[in-house]
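Aim 2, interim progress. The first record below pairs a target sequence with its structure tokens.
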Amino acid sequence: MRSRWIEYNGKRIFYQDFSNLFYNIKAVKEELAGVQGIVLNEPESSVRVLSNFTNTEFTSELMPIMNEASKITKSHVRKTAVLG
């Protein structure tokens, strides 16, 4: 898995790395499954997320999957920022 915890200004941030996956839906789904497992193991409203989607395309097949994943993890996420 490419995603990992980082620290910035004393804050713990979960860096979700979906960058450079281009049109590889399978790779995005695999990374997303790992990300969900980590986020759901954290306390509610505690996770700061930085998602990097640089050079990754959102297709009509991928959008509903990403939206559903966001709904599932929403209660555990405190703040989110997106790149790409």
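The second target in this work package is listed in the same format:
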Amino acid sequence: PLAQIWTQIGRNPASGLSKIAPNIGAVVALEYENRRTANQKLPGFIALNAGNIVGRGYFPPQVAPFGVTPNPTGLANSTNPVGEARFTNRYNMLQMLDEENRKDNVIGAGSDDMAAAYTQARDLMYNPAIQSVFQYSESDSMSYGNNAFGNACLVARNIVKSDLGTRFIQINLGGWDNHNNIYTPQGLFNPARALDSGLGQLIADLAKTPSQTAGKSLLDETLIVAMGEFGRTVGRLNNQQGRDHYLQMSCLFAGAGVRGGRPIGSTDAMGAATLDPGWARGVTIRPEDVFCTIYSALGIDYTLVRQDDPFKRGFEYVPYANQGVYAPIDVLWA
């Protein structure tokens, strides 16, 4: 769990501001919030099959991860049993009462945030455009592997195609913690098959879907990052026919103009250690460098230090990046 948090907040979870640190998806959602158009009603940050997910930290609730478990029938709880007309009547009455209470200072601190969260939720209800994003057919599911991860990749494709306001999507595969019987269907094989079919089809679909920019595909305008929090031991298996935790790992980048089909850097023959990091800085790439890369690709200043954190210490998007300790992995585009 410690490492899972690290790969979502881009800093040591034991560091000073880690307890209020937002998920990188919340940062991206906040940075893009003022670019929304009137019809973009989807949350800026959607988490599919959420798992051990970090939330919004000290950021406003509008940019919190919106958790969804994909279902072919669409988004759950998007209607009300009393019917749309009666529900809308009740909702409007609630807004009127809340507005009066806010004016009279009856409602305490945080009421504006709560109202914004209600509004965001209301925009998802009784909305055919939203519902269609989360619906999918059996044949589509089969093409993505017909499993939970594949269905999440399928919904992610729909979200990207819809352009309804979401700018960051996090998908959880479910884990590779194979301490025993790793080379069995229940160990490595089924998750590997799910990753291969879901991620591969997502990349292929985005690559063949034109974007609104002439000559560009949606893959050209979408950065895909696939990573975990650690690798597995190399060499002989342990006494339970599995592999244990290991620092050495890999990370996959695709889309957004990344020059693919090649490794960056190299390891020894066993994969036990990095021989060449593969970029000009000559140091081992860390999660913080991955964060710099994502922010940079999205046009976000990865060196930014916010001055709005509760502790008034200055919240860095990437710790020490403004001192040159971490940087984007530019060789991906070289």
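The longest helix spans residues 185-207. This observation will shape the mutagenesis plan for the next reporting period.
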